[in-house]
Amino acid sequence: MGYYFNGTTEHGFLEYRNSYTKIEPAGASSSLARGINNTREIVGEYRPNVNADGEGFTFLNAKFTSYVYPTATYTEFNGVNSLGDRTGDTVTGRINGFLAGPGFLLMCR
Fold first, then answer.
1. Fewer CB within a 10 Å sphere, N or C end of the chain?
2. In this model, does residue 109 exceed pLDDT 70?
3. Cβ contact 90:102 at 8 Å
4. Contact 9, 44 (CB under 8 A)
């Protein structure tokens, strides 16, 4: 799991038994896969188009879910644990860390 540069931009991927799968929502211009847990949930950041700011994503059971921190211009997930708690960074006029999980959201300054 990680990302590669194709000469123009980055794209997330998952490597499993020498087989590589691109991890990127349909239509996205770029992605970064940054974390994975033991339930195979992958988290990271993608840009919906070349002019867009980054949005966080989760990828689980072949489904992408996008996430934008409230009032943020940029959001990314960096890690996820086995409970589905996610850590990330966001820009809301300044850079903040945050922790999000099922039913909660906590900003860290």
1. C
2. no
3. no
4. no
